[in-house]
Amino acid sequence: MFQGERAALEALSPLAAALGMGPEDLRDYEPLPGAQAYSAYMAWLAAYTSEAEIAAAYLVNFPAWGQNCGRVGSALKSRYGLDDEQFAFFDLFATPLDGFEGRALAVISDGLERASRSAWSGARRGYCKVLSCCTGTPSMQLWISPKAGP
Protein backbone atom coordinates (compact mmCIF):
# COMPACT_ATOMS: atom_id res chain seq x y z
CA MET A 1 0.00 0.00 0.00
CA PHE A 2 2.69 2.46 1.02
CA GLN A 3 4.68 2.00 -2.20
CA GLY A 4 1.54 2.62 -4.25
CA GLU A 5 0.74 5.79 -2.33
CA ARG A 6 4.32 7.03 -2.74
CA ALA A 7 4.22 6.32 -6.49
CA ALA A 8 0.87 8.15 -6.72
CA LEU A 9 2.31 11.17 -4.94
CA GLU A 10 5.28 11.22 -7.32
CA ALA A 11 2.97 10.95 -10.35
CA LEU A 12 0.74 13.76 -9.12
CA SER A 13 3.13 16.65 -9.95
CA PRO A 14 3.33 15.96 -13.72
CA LEU A 15 -0.46 15.55 -13.84
CA ALA A 16 -1.04 18.77 -11.90
CA ALA A 17 1.39 20.66 -14.14
CA ALA A 18 -0.39 19.38 -17.26
CA LEU A 19 -3.66 20.69 -15.84
CA GLY A 20 -2.17 24.10 -15.04
CA MET A 21 -1.43 23.65 -11.34
CA GLY A 22 1.95 24.62 -9.94
CA PRO A 23 3.67 23.56 -6.70
CA GLU A 24 2.03 26.44 -4.81
CA ASP A 25 -1.42 25.37 -6.00
CA LEU A 26 -0.78 21.82 -4.77
CA ARG A 27 0.56 23.05 -1.44
CA ASP A 28 -2.45 25.32 -0.87
CA TYR A 29 -5.07 22.86 -2.16
CA GLU A 30 -7.71 21.79 0.35
CA PRO A 31 -9.78 18.76 -0.67
CA LEU A 32 -13.47 18.64 0.05
CA PRO A 33 -14.25 17.11 3.47
CA GLY A 34 -15.97 14.14 1.81
CA ALA A 35 -12.66 13.25 0.19
CA GLN A 36 -11.49 11.99 3.57
CA ALA A 37 -14.20 9.30 3.80
CA TYR A 38 -12.07 6.56 2.24
CA SER A 39 -9.02 7.05 4.46
CA ALA A 40 -11.19 7.48 7.57
CA TYR A 41 -13.06 4.27 6.82
CA MET A 42 -9.84 2.37 6.15
CA ALA A 43 -8.49 3.57 9.52
CA TRP A 44 -11.69 2.35 11.17
CA LEU A 45 -11.40 -1.04 9.46
CA ALA A 46 -7.77 -1.32 10.58
CA ALA A 47 -8.71 -0.55 14.18
CA TYR A 48 -11.86 -2.65 14.53
CA THR A 49 -11.84 -5.54 12.07
CA SER A 50 -9.71 -8.51 11.14
CA GLU A 51 -7.11 -8.86 8.41
CA ALA A 52 -9.53 -11.07 6.50
CA GLU A 53 -12.25 -8.43 6.54
CA ILE A 54 -9.83 -5.77 5.33
CA ALA A 55 -8.60 -8.07 2.56
CA ALA A 56 -12.20 -8.74 1.50
CA ALA A 57 -12.98 -5.02 1.43
CA TYR A 58 -9.90 -4.33 -0.71
CA LEU A 59 -10.71 -7.28 -2.97
CA VAL A 60 -14.01 -5.59 -3.81
CA ASN A 61 -12.65 -2.05 -3.78
CA PHE A 62 -9.49 -2.21 -5.90
CA PRO A 63 -11.17 -3.28 -9.17
CA ALA A 64 -13.84 -0.55 -8.79
CA TRP A 65 -11.23 2.10 -7.99
CA GLY A 66 -9.12 0.93 -10.93
CA GLN A 67 -12.06 1.19 -13.32
CA ASN A 68 -12.83 4.70 -12.06
CA CYS A 69 -9.22 5.77 -12.55
CA GLY A 70 -9.16 4.24 -16.01
CA ARG A 71 -12.29 6.11 -17.09
CA VAL A 72 -11.23 9.47 -15.65
CA GLY A 73 -7.70 9.06 -16.96
CA SER A 74 -8.87 8.18 -20.46
CA ALA A 75 -11.14 11.21 -20.54
CA LEU A 76 -8.34 13.51 -19.38
CA LYS A 77 -5.88 11.96 -21.81
CA SER A 78 -8.17 12.39 -24.81
CA ARG A 79 -9.43 15.83 -23.84
CA TYR A 80 -6.14 17.36 -22.73
CA GLY A 81 -3.67 15.25 -24.71
CA LEU A 82 -1.73 14.04 -21.68
CA ASP A 83 1.51 12.19 -22.36
CA ASP A 84 2.52 8.99 -20.58
CA GLU A 85 4.29 10.79 -17.70
CA GLN A 86 1.34 13.11 -17.13
CA PHE A 87 -1.10 10.19 -17.36
CA ALA A 88 0.96 7.95 -15.03
CA PHE A 89 -1.14 8.76 -11.95
CA PHE A 90 -4.29 7.25 -13.44
CA ASP A 91 -2.44 4.47 -15.22
CA LEU A 92 -0.88 3.44 -11.90
CA PHE A 93 -4.27 2.82 -10.29
CA ALA A 94 -6.04 1.54 -13.40
CA THR A 95 -3.57 -1.34 -13.66
CA PRO A 96 -4.48 -4.36 -11.47
CA LEU A 97 -1.92 -5.31 -8.83
CA ASP A 98 -0.01 -8.45 -9.81
CA GLY A 99 -0.92 -11.34 -7.53
CA PHE A 100 -3.14 -9.23 -5.26
CA GLU A 101 -6.27 -11.35 -5.68
CA GLY A 102 -4.46 -14.57 -4.73
CA ARG A 103 -2.82 -12.98 -1.69
CA ALA A 104 -6.11 -11.43 -0.56
CA LEU A 105 -7.95 -14.73 -0.94
CA ALA A 106 -5.25 -16.47 1.12
CA VAL A 107 -5.70 -13.92 3.93
CA ILE A 108 -9.48 -14.33 3.77
CA SER A 109 -9.19 -18.12 3.80
CA ASP A 110 -6.88 -18.02 6.79
CA GLY A 111 -9.30 -15.70 8.59
CA LEU A 112 -12.22 -18.00 7.92
CA GLU A 113 -10.25 -20.97 9.23
CA ARG A 114 -9.46 -19.12 12.47
CA ALA A 115 -12.94 -17.73 13.02
CA SER A 116 -16.39 -19.18 12.82
CA ARG A 117 -18.59 -18.20 9.92
CA SER A 118 -20.77 -16.30 12.39
CA ALA A 119 -17.99 -13.73 12.64
CA TRP A 120 -18.78 -12.84 9.04
CA SER A 121 -22.22 -11.49 9.82
CA GLY A 122 -24.32 -9.44 7.45
CA ALA A 123 -23.05 -6.29 9.11
CA ARG A 124 -19.44 -7.26 8.46
CA ARG A 125 -20.12 -8.18 4.85
CA GLY A 126 -21.32 -4.58 4.59
CA TYR A 127 -17.72 -3.36 5.00
CA CYS A 128 -17.07 -4.19 1.37
CA LYS A 129 -20.16 -2.28 0.29
CA VAL A 130 -19.24 0.82 2.30
CA LEU A 131 -15.71 0.84 0.95
CA SER A 132 -17.06 0.53 -2.58
CA CYS A 133 -19.31 3.53 -1.97
CA CYS A 134 -16.25 5.47 -0.87
CA THR A 135 -14.51 4.58 -4.13
CA GLY A 136 -17.18 6.05 -6.33
CA THR A 137 -17.05 9.60 -5.05
CA PRO A 138 -15.01 10.59 -1.99
CA SER A 139 -11.73 8.87 -2.80
CA MET A 140 -11.86 10.22 -6.33
CA GLN A 141 -12.59 13.65 -4.82
CA LEU A 142 -9.41 13.38 -2.81
CA TRP A 143 -7.43 13.56 -6.03
CA ILE A 144 -9.46 15.52 -8.54
CA SER A 145 -12.20 17.68 -6.99
CA PRO A 146 -12.01 21.45 -7.18
CA LYS A 147 -11.46 23.37 -3.97
CA ALA A 148 -14.75 23.96 -2.23
CA GLY A 149 -15.57 27.30 -0.75
CA PRO A 150 -17.20 30.64 -1.35
List the helices and strands and how they pair.
Layout: H1 2-18, H2 23-28, H3 37-48, H4 51-80, H5 84-94, H6 100-114, H7 122-136, H8 138-144
Helix pairs in contact: 1-5, 3-7, 4-5, 4-6, 4-7
Walkthrough of the structure:
The longest helix is centred in the middle third of the chain and has 30 residues. The protein is elongated, with a radius of gyration of 17 Å. Helix content is 75%, strand content 0%. The protein contains eight helices and no strands. By secondary structure, the chain is an all-alpha fold. The C terminus is likely disordered. The chain has one domain.
The oligomeric state is single chain
Mean model confidence by pLDDT? 79
- Report the count of strand segments: 0
Helix proportion range: over 70%
Rg over CA atoms: 17 Å
Secondary structure class reads: mainly alpha
How many helices in DSSP terms? 8
Count of all domains: 1
Q: What is the chain-wise order of helices and strands?
A: HHHHHHHH
In a nutshell, what does this entry contain?
With 150 residues, this protein is mostly helical. The chain contains eight helices and no strands.
Which structural traits does this protein have?
75% helix; 150 residues; mainly alpha
